[in-house]
Model the fold of this input.
Amino acid sequence: MDAKNDTTTESAERELEITRVFDAPRSLVFKAWTQPEHLAHWWGPRGFSLPSCQIDLRPGGSYRFQMKSPEGGIVWWHGVVREIVEPERIVWTCSIDNADGTSVSGETLLTVTLDDYAGKTRLTLRQAIFASSDIRDAHSNGWNSAFGRLAELLATL
Done:
């Protein structure tokens, strides 16, 4: 089979995986991911804010986050919680829309796993399948910036 016709390869090119070690216990990292008062301090790339954060943290529950850019642009993250295993795993769908309701990126599945790692926490984020590799790359940049903010928050908790 020709590689450019291989849907497995094409799908893999539109998947994102990031692993990061945080100097905090996984119970604290889990709280930072699941409690609105913590999410508001780190969600989004540096310079972005989270003016609204609603989450019903149970399988079948939903979430809706309003994210604001430094220039004032608004996007809404929303989806359905698929799985919660405290303090090990979070799985939810992700859709991002502009303030007018137009789609920024189609629905993806976000899986976050937290493992004990020598007194620290190894976080592995998997998100797939993006509509394009460009959208995947934009998310990669955003997540890496947000994880810098998360590390800073964890150091203060």
User: Anything to note?
Assistant: The helical segments are 7-12, 26-34, 36-42, 133-156. The chain has four helices and seven strands. The mean pLDDT is 92. The two ends are 52 Å apart (CA to CA).
